Fold each of these.
Amino acid sequence: MNSDYRIPDLKIDDVDREILSKLHENSRASYTDIGKEIGLSRVAVQTRINNLVEQGVIEKFTTVINPAKIGIHVSAFFNVDVEPKFLESVAEQLEQEDAVTSLYHMTGPSKLHMHGIFADNQEMERFLTEKLYSVEGVVSVDCQILIKRYKSRMGMKL
């Protein structure tokens, strides 16, 4: 492995992991509340969280929205085969689409794996025909519609 691409290991301790776990449960928890639960002062918690943000361990604080509650009823996963020379340009175009919630380059010959959400099947069909199929370099698309969500992991196991 080329050392230029190695990401340095960050040193986070058990206290940082506890803080991350509390934030994962409720990112709106106050520094004071987290401190009380793990035995630190508000200032110590704030300092540690700021360090985790500066180190890039915490990328952002966000809100998880239930799509069905706001009229989004179709969740679909797509495997998109792309001509190798168009991989980056296709990814750049797709990441700009509001319907696309995640986009990954997967192993295999130029595969993009994508998740999208849509109000209904007609909106998904318009996305496929007007946006996805018309992108230069897209060879084929495999689409699977989510039937039932059993678990959705936001973040990661600590």
Amino acid sequence: MGLIKVGRLKIGLSNEEGENRLMWFLNQGCVISCFRDLFYQEAVATERTEIVFIKKEFFFRFIRSNQDNLDFFLDQLYKKYQYCINILLTEHKSTSKVRVYKLIHQLGKNYGQIQSDQSILVKNFLTRMDMASITGVHRSNIIKYLSELENMAIIKKEKQFIIIKQPQTLEKLINLAD
């Protein structure tokens, strides 16, 4: 078990056949655990990261010592579980374009910082390969859809960040397509 003291990790899972997928990001204060034999995990630090490793017995004793500790841990598990179930239920229902739009929207909602003009700044934005892994959309199409959004002045791309200039318009595009 581990606790991210500082930083951020990208967590990817793969199966025995080598199929892999970027699953989620873990930020400061998140717990890292393993899936044992079911999946192979890959953790990549996206910035300077410090992890405190804890023996499982000590960790569970800590969790049971206080209701707030247990609630925090369960909240993290539920979010991951909900994300996985959501992916399974919606994976083939949306077009590739909508999956990319939804990913950008979710990143803004979960990791973005609202700016004074109501745009949303997302730092340490995903690579095109990460986006392809999450959405199942080919990297060339990711680039195409991001360019379309940029041409419509909905987003602005930079190397390490993206600005969602019109979050409401992005949400409307998603809703119209669903």
Amino acid sequence: MGIGNKIREARLRKGLTQEQLAKLVGVRQTAIGNYENNTSHPKVDILYQLMQVLGVDANYIFQDKMNEMKVKLSAPSDTLSVNEKSLVRTYRQCSPVGKQKISSYSQKILDVEKEEDEVDRLMPIAAHNDDMSPEQIELMKQDLEDL
């Protein structure tokens, strides 16, 4: 079941037609039909109005999507640390605008990390590198003497 099915289910529970719901929300009847058929999804402001008119909350509307996410997150290959679970919980409590900002910021961080990895990969190893073992230092000294 998707978002559209949840909208239809709540509309029928309220005893409303698509046309009646459309008037209450301020959209065309065809828009309601498209939402219910998952042809399109309501914008955030329309979604809020739908939830208010239908007397449901986001948990109800997105229940099936959240269950899908739980299944994916609970897969053995996708184990999360305690810190990661806390971050996911915090993210879920954010408004749609907050979630968008977090997603945008996260992408910027990933882009910076990728650039840093590229720079590190291209950096030459200096002769005075402190990470060199005593054996490497001896080999370098021999190489210099051979010149």
